TrEMBL record:
PROSITE patterns: MFS. The lineage of its organism: Bacteria, Pseudomonadati, Pseudomonadota, Alphaproteobacteria, Hyphomicrobiales. The chain crosses the membrane at residues 27-49, 61-82, 89-111, 179-202, 236-255, 267-287, 299-316, 322-341, 353-379, 385-406. It comes from Mesorhizobium dulcispinae. Residues 531-550 are annotated as: Disordered. It is found in: Cell membrane. It is a multi-pass membrane protein. The keyword Protein transport does not apply. It comes from the Bacteria. Its main location: membrane. Keywords: Cell membrane, Membrane, Transmembrane, Transmembrane helix, Transport. Pfam families: MFS_3. This is MFS transporter. Residues 24-410 form the Major facilitator superfamily (MFS) profile domain.
Length: 550
């Protein structure tokens, strides 16, 4: 690992427990651990209940799919909502849905009125609530804390959940074995209500935009475009999808390992889950030290190999102790990978779009988990449990090699907050929906600077396009070769204002670099015009064109 990479890692590494000094983060984080414990109680109860009332291996594996598939379907909508409305309110609504599903499941089990498909249906409803809570909670981290504390906070979220994972499944197994699934469902419901109480008691808000709220369809489109034009985010999403697809065999098939291969009951299943959580907890606590020693790419590769080794051990061992030890390795690889990918997306996203990028990442990662759960369940049912685990181990080794094509860049701290923008004075009275707007920026570039200028304009195109520019192009004057014109469009005047409000300090650095290449006495001139189709009715806001100097 290079000296520069270590410096970048250190710059974004805060002491692991520093974010807990913030009272709002501390309260929500603690409530999240309690509700996470309840979620694990419910997961153990649902998984074991399904294993006892259904003889189908696919139905058992579909328990994981039922909670992750809604995240895949709904997350992009949830992310757009989290970026346009109060993230705290979105979290509250999501937890209300989770609590409602738990209350209804508890009531039905108490009445003895349930079957495998009903269990999957209410698990799916809980997954719908999780689809809204997760993007809003992770995006809120940057609202509650400083940028440099985000990696430590994301690590704490993962460490906290996996700390609960280390004890929750074992406790859940004891509760299910001693008192039955009904008690586990009731306890889970109480923990969800505790989370709602914490959200109601503590308040936080995002950075308010001076512009009107975006329509949902526009917000989704802009988030998808930003993601598609961000190489770092695309790499993290692709790796997350592939890792979820291959590694979920560990958790999806674990009830079958406990029941069929080890001949155990719910307590044995809880012990295995505790081993997985213990490994995740240890990896989370040592997260900062690991990242100071190894690059994120190297850690992700090693994590995939660790999960592959876990799958192979589970495929062949008849010992509960050996299986639990193997699962500590798998748990460590699990938390290292997901934490690293999550932080990579967070640090690559400006605040105006972070909810959407996180939701797209979450949706595709959860899609990989949902599809993988089904695939490995089908393989286990039609062939054998051992073959399913062996195949997933081989697939994980292939995922480890994808770093050659889709590397995860080393974290670095950059100012991703949007800067203010002064609306230019216009000669026409434009409405927010007036448009399309044509933007032309004129440069004077000496021949000696042309090659550097073209390199920087390639980056300029990416920056402007992901902020909202359409039909971007660069033109060179044939009669005055030193004269260059950058041209792009926005659908409306409001879209033009949004584009400029979205540009961050890091994006503005490119403006300063281009200014150094510009040879004119005056800075590059920006012209604004509004398109008017020939023969269209004359309207006041479309009566001509205009420009301003910048």
């Amino acid at each position: 690992m290079s000296r520069v990479a270590r410096a970048d890692a250190a710059s974004v590494s805060s002491a692991t427990f520093t974010p807990l000094e913030n009272p709002t983060f501390r309260a929500i984080w603690l409530a999240a651990q309690l509700s996470g414990l309840g979620w694990l109680f419910q997961t153990v109860a649902v998984s074991w209940l399904m294993a006892t009332i259904s003889t189908s291996d696919v139905m058992v594996a579909l328990v994981q799919t039922s909670t992750t598939l809604p995240v895949f379907v709904l997350s992009i909508f949830a992310g757009a909502i989290a970026d346009n409305f109060s993230r705290r309110h979105v979290m509250a609504i999501g937890w209300c849905v989770i609590a409602l599903s738990s209350i209804m499941l508890t009531a039905l089990v108490a009445l003895g009125f349930y079957n495998p498909w009903m269990i999957l249906a209410f698990s799916c409803l809980a997954g719908c609530g999780a689809a809204f809570t997760d993007p809003a909670w992770h995006a809120s981290v940057g609202d509650i804390l400083r940028k440099r504390e985000v990696p430590a906070a994301v690590t704490l979220i993962s460490v906290g959940y996996n700390a609960m994972r280390s004890i929750g499944p074992a406790l859940g197994g004891v509760v299910v074995a001693s008192f039955g699934p009904l008690t586990a469902f009731a306890v889970a419901t109480l923990t969800y209500l505790a989370m709602l109480w914490a959200i109601g008691l503590y308040k936080w808000s995002g950075r308010a935009s001076p512009l009107p709220r975006e329509p949902l369809s526009t917000a989704i489109h802009d988030g998808a475009r930003f993601t598609a034009l961000s190489g770092e985010i695309k790499a993290a999403i692709a790796r997350g999808f592939l890792f979820g697809l291959t590694s979920i065999s560990i958790l999806a098939l674990l009830p079958l390992v406990a029941r069929d291969q080890l001949g155990g009951g719910p307590i044995a299943y809880g012990v295995l889950m505790a081993g997985f959580g213990a490994g995740a907890l240890c990896a989370g606590i040592s997260n900062n030290a690991l990242r100071r020693s190894l690059s994120q790419e190297r850690l992700t590769t090693l994590a995939c190999i660790a999960c592959a080794a876990c799958c192979l051990a589970l495929a062949f061992t008849p010992s509960l102790v050996v299986a639990a030890i193997a699962l500590t390795l798998g748990g460590a690889g699990w938390v290292v990978t997901w934490t690293g990918l999550d932080v990579s997306v967070q640090l690559s996203s400006p605040r105006w779009v972070v909810g959407r990028t996180l939701s797209i990442y979450s949706a595709l990662s959860s899609g990989g988990v949902a599809v993988g759960s089904w695939i490995w369940g089908v393989v286990a049912e039609n062939h054998s449990l051992t073959l399913a685990l062996e195949a997933s181990a081989g697939a994980l080794l292939l995922v480890a090699a994808t770093g050659l094509l889709l590397p995860i860049r080393q974290w670095k701290e950059a100012d991703q907050d949007s800067l203010g923008f002064e609306t230019p004075a216009l000669a026409l009275d434009l409405k927010s929906r007036s448009g399309p707007i044509v933007v032309k920026i004129e440069y004077s570039i000496p021949e000696a600077n042309v090659e550097t200028f073209l390199d920087q304009m390639q980056e300029r195109r990416r920056v402007q396009s992901r902020a909202g520019a359409r039909h971007w192009n660069l033109q060179r004057d044939l009669q005055e070769p030193s004269h260059w014109t950058e041209t792009f469009r926005t659908p409306t005047w409001m879209d033009y204002l949004r584009l400029n409000h979205r540009l961050t300090a890091e994006d503005r650095e490119l403006d300063r670099s281009l200014l150094e290449l510009h040879a004119g006495e005056l800075p590059p001139r920006t012209r604004l015009a509004i398109e008017r189709p020939t023969g269209a009715p004359r309207r006041r806001e479309q009566s001509g064109s205009f420009f301003f100097r910048r």
